[in-house]
Write a structure and sequence with these properties.
The chain has 340 residues and is of the alpha/beta class. The protein is 42% helix and 18% strand. The chain has two domains: 7-124 and 307-323, 2-Layer Sandwich (Nucleotidyltransferase, domain 5), CATH 3.30.420; 136-301, Nucleotidyltransferase, domain 5.
């Protein structure tokens, strides 16, 4: 492509955040996210409520993203959108809007895999942040996914390890529910963990072959531990909350780093990147940085705003696909279980 400036609109609606962003030649001009607070009272995302909120939010969010970028819709070269994976009702809102918006403007449509976007967010042009060199290992950690991916090139990725049951974000949220810290629990557990003793209480790490993960047993162990200790002392959680959070976080980080060490050894790759909502966790970020000294890794940690669900990561994938003329048709359908 010989165009001097390529403007890509990215639309993200895979779960409970409605987001839109504009990227020009890899640089973010705007990145707008509308959060849905309604789910907090339910302790988790309610799919029907999420899709309704997306319908209310998507037009103003896209309008704001284009305005903040300082362009008009007629300057756009393509519309990129999250095709999946995610909640079907939520995905349908973003997919339908993107298709009609691109059709109305007569510009190409680009479908994006949400999990690939978490990885390729590292290729956004951001001062002070290095871009991973190929090949590298990416750990995608979120409320719905825990994967280790071997990344050979932008769109040549292979999942070499994944959870066999619950995702790491789910382990945080379920633990938070047991402890009564609210939803989403990850940020609160992370905050309290920084004030607690990570070795105050011991939780057994699940034994899973190869590079796969399991968090179901850990969640159950935490539940039984809290129930047992609360029987002895009704104020146990209140009196030990910071130490419990620190111990849970220490165990979860240990599980993740142990698997990364094995993956790095098996593949001979020491370039490690993280992505996904849980990669905003300060403990995980620090453990990865420590890995540079301990294991000789070169680590890549994305800018905080590109970790949780956002549209800038969708737009950067759209830009990379645009350069390869990799467009999709108006017949494209959302896919709740789209694989990398």
């Amino acid at each position: 492509m010989s165009l001097e400036k390529i403007y890509i609109l990215g639309i993200e609606s895979s779960c409970d955040d409605t987001a839109a962003a504009v990227i020009c030649n890899g640089k973010v001009l705007s990145n707008v996210v509308a959060n849905q607070k309604i789910h907090e009272e339910y302790g988790g995302v309610v799919p029907e409520l999420a899709s309704r909120a997306h319908q209310q939010n998507i037009v103003p969010v896209v309008h704001q993203a284009i305005a903040k970028a300082g362009i008009t819709k007629h300057d756009l070269h393509a519309v990129a959108f999250t095709r999946g994976p995610g909640l079907m009702g939520s995905l349908l809102v973003g997919t339908s809007f993107a298709k009609s918006f691109a059709y109305g403007l007569g510009i190409p449509l680009i479908d994006v895999n949400h999990m690939q976007a978490h990885i390729l967010a590292h290729y956004i042009d951001e001062e002070g942040f290095d871009k991973p060199t190929f090949p590298f290992l990416a750990m995608t950690i979120s409320g719905g996914h825990t994967q280790i991916v071997k990344v050979n090139h932008y769109f040549d990725m292979e999942v070499i390890g994944e959870t066999i049951d619950d995702a790491v974000g789910g382990a945080y949220d379920k633990s938070g529910k047991v402890l009564g810290v609210g939803y989403p629990a990850g940020p609160e557990i992370d905050k309290r963990a920084q004030q607690g003793n990570p070795k105050a209480f011991q939780f057994t790490k699940p034994k899973v072959d190869g590079l796969n993960f399991s968090f179901s047993g850990l969640k159950t162990a935490i539940l039984y531990f809290v129930q047992r200790e609360t029987k002895k002392n009704p104020d146990f959680v209140k009196e030990n909350l910071n130490d419990i959070c620190a111990s849970i976080q220490y165990t979860i980080i240990g599980i993740l780093i142990d698997k990364l060490k094995i993956a790095s050894k098996q593949t001979g790759i020491n370039h490690i990147a993280i992505g996904g909502g849980v990669s905003a966790n300060s403990g995980i970020r620090q453990a990865l940085k420590d890995g540079e000294q301990k294991f000789g890794w070169k680590t890549y940690i994305p800018k905080f705003e590109y970790t949780t669900d956002n549209a800038a990561m969708i737009a950067i994938v759209g830009y990379l696909k645009y350069l390869e003329d990799d467009f999709t048709s108006q017949d494209v359908m959302a896919s709740a279980r789209l694989k990398i």
